Structure formats: structure tokens, C-alpha cells
Amino acid sequence: DSGVTQTPKHLITATGQRVTLRCSPRSGDLSVYWYQQSLDQGLQFLIQYYNGEERAKGNILERFSAQQFPDLHSELNLSSLELGDSALYFCASSGAGNTEAFFGQGTRLTVV
Amino acid sequence: AQKITQTQPGMFVQEKEAVTLDCTYDTSDQSYGLFWYKQPSSGEMIFLIYQGSYDEQNATEGRYSLNFQKARKSANLVISASQLGDSAMYFCAMREGLGSQGNLIFGKGTKLSVKP
To answer: Which of A39, A60, A90, B14 is the most exposed place for a label (fewest CB within 10 A)?
Structure first.
């Protein structure tokens, strides 16, 4: 158990809809990262938050947004969903004193 | 720009044999960290091993070792005494800077299959 919790584990939704993925980082970790894993694109970095502030942005679509709340949990919002958004979405966290990022179990999103 | 290259889409190894998974990287930074993660069929990402760019010794963690050749920009993962449970996807990743707050850039992965 990495200590990073993602909910839900699975999500099936229709095209055009909006969903919210939730992540609770390991206790004390200030950084939260979101990654998308799809068969054709591999593991793509989406966005990073550090202590509530956006720290780095990767290949995140404008239809996607994220935030980190004062209790350090984070949410990834995906809107106007398309079939191609179907993927495994990972949240990871890291903190001072750790070199590695700890990953959650992922949320498998299926857009139908 | 950072880049991680894993040239072996798939590998087979006999149980109890050793196997090397290749990883080369490209960065202009002097300070960086290299990581290997394992992703079994269940989907979770499991951290295996880390090597900092200034570490003089190759990192080892149990049956995993990282063959770090800085001049060649390679960071190959060696798994000794393969077990059936080692069958999984393996990802090489890099973070620029030696702190813990930068994002990881991943390679496309190598699928390892261990044969009994």
C-alpha cells in the first residue's frame, strides 16, 4: 500500500460528460502529480500541485483542470469527455526526504 | 527536452535467470534522478529503485540493481534470479534536479515475461 488513495477505481461515462477524480496523497506529502496512461501515449504527465499551488504543467488538455485543496487532497476534473480520454489516470505524491513518487492505484476511466 | 528511451517493447526470461532491461536518457541537466517502476497486470505502479546523477555506486535493492553509465546516459535495470511474479511492465523514468518535487518523465516501458 503506497498510502496514496484514489477514488473511484473505475468510472464509466458517456461522451460529453464531466467527471471528477479524487486523490488523497500520503500523509505529509505536499506535492501531487497527475498522470494519464493510455495504450498509444504511454504515461503522460498532466499537472503538478505543490501545497495548493500549481507547480508544473504537462500535456494537459484545456478540457481538463485540477486543484489541490488546503487539506492537500487533489481533484482532476475532466469535461466534454471524448472516447480518446479513456485511460488509466494516476495520482502520485512526494514529499521532502523522499526521492521517489508514490502512486495511487489509479482510476480507470472508460468513455462510451 | 528530457527524453527516456526504452528500446525493448517485450522481453522473455527463463525463471531463475538474470535479465537486463535497457534505458537511455537525454538531459542537459547535471543533476537528475533516475527511477524504475514496475506495473503488474493489476495496474498499480510500484517503485523499484533510484539512482541519483551524482551517486558513484550503482544502486541496489534486493534482486534489483541499476547499471548506471553516466557517460553513455544509460540506466539499465538488472533483475537477478527472475521469478514468475516479476512478469510485468517495467518503466524507466527521470526527474531533473535532485529534489523530490519535480515531475517524472517516463519511457514507454518494457513488458517482461518470465517463463517457468
So the answer is: A39
